Amino acid sequence: MIRLLALLICLVGPAAAQEFNARATVEAIRMDGEEVAVAISQPVRWRVFVEADSWRLVLDTSEVDWSSADPAAIAVDAEWRAGRIRAGWSRLMFELPGPMRIERAWMDTDVGTTINVVLTEGAGSVGPLNPQAWDVRPSTTVPTVQRRRQTGDRPLVIALDPGHGGVDPGAEAGGLTEAALMLRFARELSDVLKRRGHEVVLTRDGDEFVGLRGRSTIARAGQADLMLSLHADAVEGGGAEGATVYTLAPGNETQLAAEIAQRHGRDDLLLGVGDVEQGDEIARILVELARAETAPRSVKLADALVAGLNAAGIRLHKRPRLGGKFTVLKAPDIPSVLLELGFMSNTQDLANLGNPDWRSRMAVAIANGVAAWAEQDAAEALLLRQ
Question: The MurNAc-LAA domain covers which part of the protein (predicted)?
């Protein structure tokens, strides 16, 4: 699904000719109706746009430390948040009351440095996305030589993908965020897997934003044999409970899977990029061929994980195996699953996520499931070679 941007303005201005040495600090943030002014200590590279799907004003900047803002110098009449989205880039977002477009935007460097944006009511036409300017999308560079399919003769490389992070905290409950809980669990699971002789690649190892496609790119760059995307969502009513394992199944979603996939898909909205397939026909065919081999392996990985969790006495959702349209599972060459450890909207699940003993049992159960899958997968790979 292509995310439409109401307007995108990539501006070079006076900042282009200047050197960006130390990180800029924030001196003031002001939003009063249709006018926004962000004062910083020095010129930086920047871009600003309005998201048509969610009606947010988004300001991307290079090398700005938003944590330096003095609360007394912040006067904003809307919900807002700021954080890091990748190395060297950060994002400031304002919630808009409805359809708005950018009338003017400029960086004033006459007296200090201020980024100014003037909004007006109404949706604008879609502007051109200029990837040549200050593009904040994750690099798509990957190794030209990919690791061969594992056959049990070398350490398994496992990509762990703690969901959300940075400007996207994920679900929230009891003062906790999904992003923080999943990062903690990913580190604990990493320790368990490493003790078993596996190698681990983390898609993030801090509170930072990584786009959905960027997560697959990191896994591929690390030559991962499989990827586990870790989440703990929340649903209205708090009725859902227990662990669930998802595989990519774009044509066969339950209502719950569709709801959760839609929320996870907001990651790419926050980054300002969409789920756009490549137009090259040859590339598309190669991707589909790779996916045809990988998809059954992902299904078997999911089944093995459910079996491992069940054997360990981990509480499972009433339908522990589901499929959905998850962008993070679309890597055609890496068996990938999304594991919802539980639901933060459920009191018991939330307590489990905060319990070190439960997390330890969960980590061991996942490691056991991965081991069972790897053994079966290696045997199949050897048969295919014969």
Answer: 216-371
How many CA atoms, within 13 angstroms, populate the side-chain half-sphere of residue 372? 17
Residue 252 pairs in a beta bridge with none
How would DSSP label each residue in 116-140?
Answer: EEEEEESPPPPPPP-TTSS--SPP-
pLDDT at position 45: 82
Consecutive sets of 10 residues in the chain, 386 residues long: mean pLDDT of each?
32 36 80 90 85 80 82 86 80 88 82 87 47 36 56 94 88 93 98 97 87 81 93 82 89 52 45 37 59 88 98 96 83 90 95 98 98 96 83
pLDDT in the model for residue 214: 78
d(CA 37, CA 41): 13
Q: What pLDDT does residue 185 have? A: 98
Largest Cα–Cα separation, the chain: 73
> DSSP readout, 180-237?
HHHHHHHHHHHHHHHHTT-EEEES-SSS----HHHHHHHHHHTT-SEEEEEE----TT
Q: State how beta strands 336-340 and 243-248 pair.
A: antiparallel
Residue 24, beta-bridge partner list:
64
Q: Is 178 helix (H, G, I), strand (E, B) or coil?
A: helix
| CA–CA separation, 261 and 258 (whole Å) | 5
Q: What does the alpha-carbon distance between residue 363 and residue 164 come to, in Å, rounded to a whole number?
A: 20
Q: What are phi and psi of 340, to 5 degrees?
A: -85, 110
- Residue 239: per-residue pLDDT: 76
pTM: 0.63
> What does 62-106 look like in DSSP terms, one character per residue?
ESEEGGG--GGGEEESS-EEEEEEETTEEEEEEE-SS-EEEEEEE
- Rounded CA separation 317/243 (Å): 5
Instruction: Enumerate long-range contacts of 287-294, CB under 8 Å, 24 or more apart.
Output: 287/332, 288/332, 290/332, 290/333, 291/332, 294/331, 294/332, 294/333, 294/334, 294/335, 294/336
DSSP of 345-369: TSHHHHHHHT-HHHHHHHHHHHHHH
What domains lie within the chain, and their CATH numbers?
5-121 (2.60.40.3500), 157-385 (3.40.630.40)
